[in-house]
C-alpha cells in the first residue's frame, strides 16, 4: 500500500516534467546560436562516423602528397610534414576529440553524480568529508595534476580521459550536491520519503530526474574544456600517441611549420575553435532553455 | 580594513598553505619514487660510478629513510640537488622561477581584469553595434583557441610581421633580459597569457552590465541628468565588478597553469617552463621541487584573492 | 681492451666533416680594422649543460662549452689533426708504444693565477680515472688504471685520497720527474691514446686542484672556482637561464681571443622561438653548442629566403641512424619479441621483411626533405670515415613484394607480429617523424600494426641499452675516425653484450673472435676485418639502415671564423665579430 501511495503522490510530477522538457526543446529551437551549434555538432558526429568507414586517404599513410603543401584539388586542406592528407586526419581527429570530450564527461558524471547525491542527501559527516575533499581539489591547479597523472600513467586515450575526469569531477559533485540539498526539502521528496521509499529510489527516481537540467548544462560546458586540455597535453608531447591524429596534436605540430605551411595549424585550430564554440553556445542555449529564470 | 580577525585568518591560512605544500610534495615524492626502474640517472654510469651516484643522492637508503630526510630538508627549505645538472641545488632555482612566474602572472592578471572589463563595458554600452560584435568575436576566439596557437601567432604577428612592416623600428623582441625581464619582454607573453581569460571577463562584464543598465536606479540616475560616463563608472561598473570577483580564484589558477605553455613558447625562465622540461627530462628532484613551488604559489595566490575580496567588498570579513 | 670511449648520442649534437670551414667569409687574413666595437658572441642552447667538469662530462653541449675553458696536453685543431696544447709538442710513443713523455709549457696559468705544472696533469687524470665518468676509459691503457677504476670514494673523501696520492686513486703509470714533464707508462700499446686524450672537454683535460677542492662536485658551476687554462673564463652562471664567459686577459696561447664576451642564452628551449630571435638579430649564431638539428620546416623556409639562405650551412655529420631489433632473449633482457636469433630462419626472414618494407629513399625525401639527412646506403659507417662501404648495403633496399612474401612465410597467421612497438626518443623532431613514417610503411607494406612508444631521451637510452625494446631507434656518432669505435661499442662482448650496454644483444662468437682480431691489428690490416664484421651484421639482418645525418647551422655574415667540424664547434678564440 505504501508503494502505491507514493506512486499516487508522485504521479503528478510526470506530466510536469514532460512539459518541462518539451518547453525546453521549444525554447532551444528558438535560440538561433544554439540551433546552429546543434546542427554543426550533428554534422561533426556524422563526419566522425563517416571517418570510421571512409576518409579521402588513409590518415596514417605518408607521402600521399608533397609535404608542407597547401590546399589543392587532391588535398582540400593541404598536406602535413610527412605528406599525409590533412583533411583525412582532421576527420579522424573529430572522433578522438569527441571521444575525449564526451568520455571525460561520462566519467565525471559517474564520479560526481553519486557523490554529490549522497553528500547532499545524507548530509552530516559524509557531506563534510566530501566538501573538504572538493575544496582540497580546488586548491591545486587541476591541469598540472592531470598532466602529472598522464605523465605517471603514460599517455594514451584512456589515461587522458581518466586524468581529466579526476580533476574535473568536483564541479559536477558540487552542483549535484547543491541541487540535492534544495530538492530534498521539496514537498514531493518529503512525501516520497514519508511513504517509505528507499533512499536509492528517492535519489535516482526523484531527485536525479529533477536535477537533470543543470547536470546536462554542466556536462555540456565540460566537454570543450576537456577537448582543450587534450590539446594542451599534445603541446607538451603527452597527448594521444601517434599515428592517431587529434586536433590538438595536429595544431601542436602545425605551430612549428606555421611560417611555411600555415594550413597545418589553421585547419585543426579552426575545427577546434568551431567545436568549442558550438559546445559553449549549446551550453548557453541549454541553460536558458532548461532554466528560464537564469536567462540573460 | 585588516582587523585583528583578518590577521589571525591570514595566519591560519599560511599554516594551511604550509600543510598543503608538505602534502603535495610528499605525494609527488612518493609517486615519483615508486616509478618503475632506476629512472634517476643518465645512461653513462657504469659499475662503481653508478653506486657512487646512488649514494650521493641518498638513493641507496630505504624509501622511508629517504622520505624522512626529504621532509626534514624541505622544512629547512632545501629541495635537494638536480639529477641532470649534477650538483646544482634546486631551491634557489625554484624560488627564482616562482618569482618570475608570479611576476608575469600578476601582469597578466592586471591585463586580464583591466582589458576584459573595459571591453565588456564598451561592448555593453555599444550593444549590437559593430564594436560589440567585433569584441564578442575576439573574445570567442580567446576562449576557443588553444593558447599555444595564440601565442605562436602573436610571436609571428608582433615579432616578425611587425618587424618587417616597420623595418625594425618597433616590434616584439624575443628574450628575457636579466632576472625579471623588462617591460618590452613582458607585455606580449602577459597578453598571450591573459587573453583567453580577458575574454571570459569581458563576457561576464558585458552580461552583468547589460543587466545593471536596465535597472531602475540607473534610469533614475539618468533622469537626474547625470552624465553617461559618470553613471557607467560610478553605478554600473561597480556592480559589474562583482561577478568578476567571483571568478578571480579560478582565473588566477588558470593563469598559473597557462604559464606552462606561454613560458615555453616565449622562452621565459619561469616555473612553467621548468615544469615541462623537468618532466620530459625525468629530472625527478626538480619535478618534486616544481610541484612544491606550485603548491606554494597557488596557495599564496588564493590567499591574495581572498584578501582582495576584503578590500573590494567591505561586507566580507574573516 | 676496454671500450675506448662511450660517447653516447645525446639526440642533439654537432658534427661536420673534417676540413670543412663554415661561412663564406671563413678565409684567414687580418681584418682587424673591420672589427665591430662590441665583440660579444651571443647564441642559444636549448637546454642547460649537465656539468662542466671534464672528468664526468658526457653530453655534447658540456664538451662544446668546456673546450673553450680548459685545455688538454694535446688537442684537435679544426681539421681534426692532433696538435700540441699544454704540451710543447705532440710526443711520439717510445719503448714499443709503451711510454709517452710530455714536455709541458712553462708559461701557462689558470684563470685564478695558479701556475700550471705537471702536478695538475697527475691530479686531473687520476681524478678522472677515479671518478669513472663516461669517458674515464680514455685513461684505460695507463698502467694502474684497472685498480683506480674500482675506486669507491667520492666527494671530499676522494679529494682527501687524491691529496695524499693514495695508491687506490693514483695510477702508477703516471709520473712527473719535474714540474714540466709528465711520463705516461702504458699497460699495453694503445695507438689510440693520443686521440683519446685529445677529445675536447673530456677526461684528458686539465683542472686546477686548488679550485676543485673547494667544492669537489660542484666547483664548475661558480665563476670563482670554474677555473681552467683556456682562453675564456666563466663570469656568470644562472642555471637554466644564462651563462656568460669573458676572454682571459693576456692569455698564454694563440690565437689570442678577439671576442671579449660570449653570452649563452639557456632560457629559450623552443627551437622555433630561438630561430625567430636569431632572425630578429637577437643571436649571432644558432646551432652552436650541440644544437644543429634545426626543425626541417625552418630550414626549408630559410632556404627559400633571399637574404638569409646564405647564412644557413648544411654539413654532413659523422653520424648514422638505424632501427635495431632485439636479438637475444634472456633473463636480464626484458624484451623478447619475434626477431631473436634463436628463432632461426623464420626470425631472420621476419627481420628481413621489416627491413625491406621500409622505403628509405622516400623516408629521406619526406622526413628530411632531402636536406637534413642522406640515405644510409654504405653500411653503418658514414661517408668520409674509414670503414664506409663502397658497395650498396643490401639492407638499405626497398622491396615491398619480397617483404610481404617473407612475412607470409615467416608469420602466416600474423600471431608473431601482433602487439609490436617501436621505441624512440621524441626530443629530436626527426626521430618523431621517422617513427611515424616507419609505422606507416610497416602498416602499408606488411599490414602489420606497430605501436609507437615515445620515451624521453635519457630514460630511452638507458632502457634501450638494457635490452628493453623489441624495435628501437638506434644511432651512433663517431668519436674518432676508426671503425673500432663502431664495432666495439655497439655489438659484441667488448661493450658487454648481451646483457649490459647492448641494444640488440648481438654477441655471436664469430663476431667476437673477429672483433678481437681486428682490434689488435694495425688499422691497415684491420680494415678488411671490420668490413667483414659489417657484412656479418648484414647477413644476420641486425639493423635497418636509415640515414646519415646532416647538421644545420645559422651564422650571421658578420661572424667570422665560426663553424664546426666533424666532432665539435670551432673554438671561440677563432671567432671575430665584424662591423655590421
Brief overview:
The complex is a heterotrimer of chains A (296), B (318) and C (580). With 318 residues, chain B is mainly alpha-helical.
What would your notes on this structure say?
The complex is a heterotrimer of chains A (296), B (318) and C (580). With 296 residues, chain A is mainly α. Chain A has eleven helices and no strands. Chain A is elongated and about 75 Å long. Mean pLDDT of chain A is 83; it is low at 1-15. Chain B has helices at residues 4-33, 47-56, 63-75, 90-125, 130-144, 147-165, 183-213, 216-223, 228-246, 248-266, 271-281, 284-312. In chain B, helix 4 (90-125) runs parallel beside helix 7, helix 7 (183-213) packs across helix 9 (228-246) and helix 7 runs antiparallel to helix 10 (248-266). In chain C, helix 9 (344-356) packs antiparallel against helix 11 (400-410) and helix 15 packs antiparallel against helix 16 (523-539). The longest helix of chain C has 18 residues, at 429-446. Chain C is globular. In chain C, 60% of the residues are buried. Classes of the chains: A mainly alpha (296), B mainly alpha (318), C alpha+beta (580).
Structure characteristics:
heterotrimer; B: mainly alpha; C: 580 residues; alpha+beta; seven-stranded mixed β-sheet; 16 helices; 18 strands; 17% strand
What composes the largest sheet of chain B? Answer: none
Average pLDDT of chain B: 80
Classify the helix fraction of chain B into a percent range.
Answer: over 70%
Strand content of chain C is 15-25%
Report the structural category of chain C: alpha+beta
User: How many beta-strand segments of chain C?
Assistant: 18
**End-to-end Cα distance of chain B:** 11 Å
Secondary-structure-based class of chain B equals: mainly alpha
The percent range for helix content of chain C is 25-40%
Number of helices of chain C: 16
Estimate the global geometry of chain B from the Cα principal axes: globular
> Low-confidence parts of chain C, pLDDT < 50 over ≥5 residues?
1-31
**Average of pLDDT of chain C:** 86
- What would you call the quaternary organization? heterotrimer
Largest sheet of chain C: 7 strands, mixed
Largest interface, C-beta closer than 8 angstroms, per-chain residues: B-C, 48 and 54 residues
Low-confidence stretches of chain B: none
Amino acid at each position: 500500500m505504501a508503494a502505491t501511495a507514493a506512486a499516487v503522490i508522485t504521479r503528478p510530477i510526470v506530466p510536469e516534467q514532460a512539459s518541462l522538457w518539451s518547453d525546453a526543446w521549444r525554447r532551444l529551437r528558438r535560440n538561433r546560436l544554439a540551433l546552429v551549434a546543434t546542427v554543426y555538432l550533428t554534422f561533426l558526429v556524422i563526419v566522425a562516423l563517416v571517418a570510421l568507414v571512409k576518409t579521402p586517404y588513409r590518415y596514417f599513410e605518408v607521402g600521399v602528397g608533397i609535404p608542407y603543401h597547401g590546399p589543392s584539388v587532391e588535398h582540400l586542406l593541404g598536406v602535413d610534414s610527412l605528406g599525409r592528407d590533412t583533411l583525412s586526419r582532421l576527420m579522424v581527429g573529430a572522433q578522438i576529440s569527441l571521444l575525449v570530450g564526451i568520455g571525460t564527461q561520462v566519467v565525471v558524471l559517474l564520479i560526481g553524480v553519486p557523490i554529490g547525491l549522497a553528500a547532499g542527501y545524507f548530509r552530516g559527516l559524509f557531506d563534510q568529508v566530501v566538501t573538504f575533499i572538493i575544496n582540497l581539489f580546488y586548491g591545486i591547479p587541476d591541469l598540472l595534476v592531470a598532466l602529472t597523472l598522464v605523465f605517471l600513467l603514460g599517455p594514451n586515450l584512456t589515461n587522458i580521459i581518466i586524468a581529466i575526469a579526476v580533476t574535473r569531477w568536483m564541479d559536477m559533485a558540487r552542483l549535484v550536491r547543491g541541487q540535492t540539498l534544495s530538492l530534498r526539502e521539496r514537498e514531493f521528496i518529503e512525501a516520497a520519503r514519508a511513504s517509505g521509499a528507499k533512499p536509492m529510489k528517492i535519489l535516482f527516481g526523484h531527485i536525479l530526474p529533477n536535477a537533470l537540467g543543470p547536470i546536462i548544462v554542466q556536462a555540456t560546458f565540460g566537454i570543450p574544456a576537456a577537448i582543450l586540455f587534450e590539446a594542451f597535453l599534445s603541446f607538451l608531447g603527452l597527448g594521444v600517441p601517434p599515428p592517431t591524429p587529434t586536433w590538438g596534436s595536429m595544431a601542436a605540430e602545425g605551430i612549428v611549420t606555421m611560417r611555411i605551411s600555415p594550413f597545418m595549424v589553421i585547419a585543426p585550430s579552426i575545427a577546434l575553435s568551431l567545436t568549442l564554440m558550438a559546445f559553449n553556445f549549446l551550453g548557453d542555449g541549454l541553460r536558458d532553455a532548461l532554466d528560464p529564470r537564469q536567462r540573460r | 580594513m585588516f582587523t585583528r580577525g583578518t590577521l589571525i585568518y591570514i595566519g591560519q591560512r599560511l599554516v594551511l598553505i604550509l600543510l598543503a605544500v608538505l602534502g603535495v610534495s610528499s605525494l609527488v615524492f612518493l609517486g615519483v619514487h615508486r616509478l618503475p626502474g632506476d629512472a634517476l640517472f643518465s645512461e653513462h654510469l657504469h659499475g662503481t660510478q653508478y653506486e657512487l651516484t646512488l649514494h650521493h643522492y641518498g638513493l641507496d637508503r630505504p624509501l622511508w629513510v629517504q622520505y624522512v630526510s626529504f621532509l626534514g630538508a624541505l622544512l629547512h627549505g632545501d629541495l635537494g640537488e638536480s639529477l641532470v645538472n649534477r650538483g646544482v641545488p634546486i631551491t634557489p632555482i625554484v624560488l627564482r622561477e616562482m618569482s618570475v612566474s608570479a611576476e608575469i602572472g600578476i601582469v597578466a592578471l592586471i591585463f586580464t581584469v583591466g582589458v576584459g572589463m573595459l571591453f565588456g563595458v564598451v561592448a555593453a554600452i555599444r550593444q549590437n553595434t559593430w564594436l560589440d560584435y567585433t569584441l564578442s568575436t575576439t573574445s570567442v576566439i580567446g576562449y576557443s583557441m588553444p593558447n599555444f596557437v595564440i601565442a605562436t601567432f602573436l610571436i609571428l604577428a608582433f615579432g616578425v610581421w611587425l618587424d618587417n612592416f616597420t623595418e625594425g623600428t618597433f616590434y616584439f623582441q624575443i628574450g628575457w633580459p636579466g632576472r625579471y625581464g623588462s617591460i618590452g619582454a613582458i607585455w606580449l607573453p602577459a597578453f598571450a597569457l591573459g587573453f583567453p581569460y580577458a575574454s571570459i571577463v569581458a563576457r561576464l562584464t558585458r552580461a552583468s552590465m547589460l543587466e545593471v543598465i536596465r535597472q531602475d536606479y540607473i534610469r533614475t540616475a539618468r533622469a537626474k541628468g547625470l552624465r553617461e560616463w559618470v553613471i557607467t563608472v560610478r553605478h554600473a561598473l561597480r556592480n559589474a565588478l562583482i561577478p568578476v570577483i567571483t571568478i578571480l580564484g579560478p582565473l588566477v589558477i588558470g593563469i598559473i597553469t597557462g604559464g606552462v605553455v606561454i613560458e615555453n613558447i616565449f622562452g621565459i625562465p619561469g616555473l612553467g617552463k621548468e615544469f615541462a622540461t623537468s618532466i620530459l627530462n625525468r629530472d625527478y628532484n626538480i619535478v618534486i621541487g616544481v610541484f612544491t613551488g606550485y603548491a606554494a604559489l597557488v596557495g599564496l595566490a588564493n590567499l591574495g584573492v581572498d584578501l582582495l575580496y576584503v578590500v573590494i567588498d567591505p561586507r566580507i570579513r574573516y | 681492451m676496454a671500450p675506448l670511449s662511450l660517447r653516447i648520442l645525446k639526440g642533439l649534437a654537432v658534427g661536420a666533416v673534417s676540413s670543412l670551414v663554415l661561412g663564406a667569409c671563413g678565409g684567414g687574413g687580418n681584418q682587424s680594422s673591420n672589427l665591430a666595437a662590441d665583440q660579444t658572441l651571443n647564441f642559444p642552447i636549448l637546454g642547460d649543460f649537465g656539468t662542466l667538469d671534464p672528468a664526468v662530462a658526457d653530453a655534447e653541449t658540456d664538451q662544446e662549452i668546456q673546450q673553450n675553458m680548459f685545455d688538454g696536453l694535446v688537442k684537435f685543431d679544426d681539421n681534426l689533426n692532433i696538435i700540441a696544447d699544454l704540451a710543447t709538442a705532440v710526443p711520439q710513443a717510445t719503448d714499443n708504444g709503451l711510454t709517452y713523455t710530455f714536455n709541458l709549457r712553462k708559461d701557462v696559468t689558470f684563470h685564478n693565477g695558479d701556475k700550471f705544472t705537471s702536478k695538475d696533469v697527475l691530479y686531473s687524470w687520476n681524478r678522472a680515472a677515479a671518478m669513472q665518468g663516461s669517458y674515464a676509459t680514455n685513461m684505460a691503457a695507463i698502467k694502474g688504471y684497472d685498480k683506480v677504476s674500482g675506486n669507491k670514494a667520492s666527494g671530499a673523501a676522494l679529494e682527501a685520497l687524491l691529496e695524499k696520492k693514495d695508491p687506490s686513486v693514483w695510477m702508477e703509470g703516471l709520473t712527473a720527474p719535474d714540474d714540466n714533464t709528465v711520463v705516461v707508462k702504458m699497460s699495453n700499446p694503445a695507438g689510440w691514446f693520443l686521440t683519446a686524450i685529445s677529445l675536447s672537454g673530456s677526461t684528458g683535460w686539465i683542472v686546477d686542484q686548488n679550485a676543485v677542492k673547494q667544492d669537489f662536485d660542484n666547483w664548475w658551476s661558480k665563476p670563482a672556482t670554474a677555473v681552467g687554462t683556456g682562453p675564456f673564463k666563466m663570469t656568470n652562471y644562472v642555471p637554466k637561464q644564462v651563462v656568460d664567459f669573458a676572454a682571459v686577459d693576456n692569455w698564454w696561447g694563440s690565437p689570442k681571443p678577439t671576442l671579449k664576451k660570449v653570452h649563452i642564452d639557456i632560457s629559450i628551449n623552443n627551437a622555433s622561438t630561438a630561430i625567430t630571435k636569431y632572425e630578429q638579430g637577437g643571436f649571432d649564431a644558432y646551432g652552436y653548442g650541440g644544437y644543429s638539428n634545426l626543425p626541417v620546416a625552418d630550414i626549408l623556409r630559410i632556404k627559400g629566403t633571399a637574404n638569409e639562405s646564405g647564412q644557413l650551412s648544411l654539413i654532413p655529420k659523422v653520424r648514422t641512424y638505424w632501427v635495431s631489433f632485439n636479438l637475444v632473449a634472456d633473463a636480464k633482457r626484458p624484451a623478447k619479441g619475434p626477431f631473436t636469433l634463436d628463432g632461426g630462419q623464420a626470425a631472420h626472414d621476419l627481420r628481413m621483411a621489416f627491413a625491406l618494407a621500409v622505403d628509405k629513399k622516400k623516408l629521406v625525401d619526406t622526413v628530411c626533405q632531402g636536406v637534413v639527412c642522406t640515405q644510409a646506403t654504405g653500411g653503418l659507417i658514414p661517408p668520409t670515415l674509414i670503414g664506409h662501404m663502397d658497395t650498396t648495403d643490401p639492407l638499405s633496399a626497398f622491396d615491398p613484394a619480397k617483404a610481404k612474401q617473407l612475412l607470409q612465410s615467416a608469420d602466416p597467421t600474423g600471431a608473431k607480429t601482433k602487439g609490436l612497438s617501436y621505441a624512440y626518443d621524441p626530443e629530436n623532431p626527426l626521430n618523431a617523424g621517422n617513427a611515424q613514417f616507419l609505422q606507416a610503411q610497416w602498416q602499408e607494406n606488411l599490414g602489420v600494426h606497430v605501436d609507437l612508444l615515445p620515451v624521453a631521451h635519457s630514460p630511452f637510452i638507458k632502457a634501450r641499452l638494457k635490452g628493453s625494446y623489441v624495435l628501437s631507434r638506434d644511432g651512433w656518432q663517431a668519436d674518432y675516425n676508426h671503425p673500432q669505435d663502431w664495432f666495439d661499442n655497439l655489438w659484441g662482448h667488448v661493450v658487454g653484450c648481451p646483457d649490459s650496454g647492448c641494444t640488440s644483444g648481438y654477441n655471436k662468437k664469430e663476431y667476437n673472435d673477429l672483433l678481437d682480431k681486428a682490434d689488435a691489428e694495425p688499422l691497415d690490416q684491420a680494415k678488411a676485418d671490420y668490413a667483414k664484421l659489417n657484412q656479418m651484421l648484414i647477413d644476420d639482418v641486425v639493423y635497418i639502415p636509415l640515414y646519415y645525418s646532416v647538421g644545420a647551422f645559422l651564422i650571421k655574415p658578420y661572424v667570422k671564423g665560426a663553424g664546426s667540424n666533424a666532432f665539435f664547434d670551432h673554438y671561440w678564440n677563432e671567432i671575430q665579430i665584424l662591423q655590421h
